[in-house]
Write a structure and sequence with these properties.
It is a single chain. Helix content is 39%, strand content 21%. The chain has 106 residues and is of the alpha+beta class. The longest helix has 30 residues, at 2-31. It starts with a helix and ends in an 11-residue tail after the last strand.
Length: 106
């Protein structure tokens, strides 16, 4: 039961990472760059506002380069506390959370 619950939490985090990826794609199309500011993303995709992403289970952060970005979900509590899930501009998943491999594209 606990593993199924954690898998659901990971799935929810990945869904939120996808929202940020979508918002970054729109932002990049409009401004020819990525942003590390959730407020900038929220102007284009309201669901990407940091206050709508964060939850008791996850905290979300962004890091950007000129043509790349990575959004990271960091687990806040429970047995996987401090483990991460990341998604880049290409939708590739990575991170330290042990369940992430089940969600990676093969």
């Amino acid at each position: 039961f606990m593993k199924a619950m954690e898998r659901a939490r990971v799935s929810a985090a990945i869904e939120r990472l996808g929202i940020v990826r979508k918002a970054e794609g729109i932002y990049h199309t409009l401004y020819s760059e990525y942003t590390s500011d959730f407020d900038n993303l929220a102007n284009e995709v309201p669901e990407a506002a940091s206050n709508r992403l964060d939850s008791p289970d996850w905290n979300f952060t962004l890091s950007c380069g000129t043509d790349t970005f990575t959004v990271t979900a960091t687990k806040q509590r429970g047995s996987y506390s401090s483990d991460t899930i990341t998604m880049n501009q290409d939708g590739e998943l990575d991170g330290t959370h042990p369940l992430i491999n089940a969600f990676k594209k093969k």
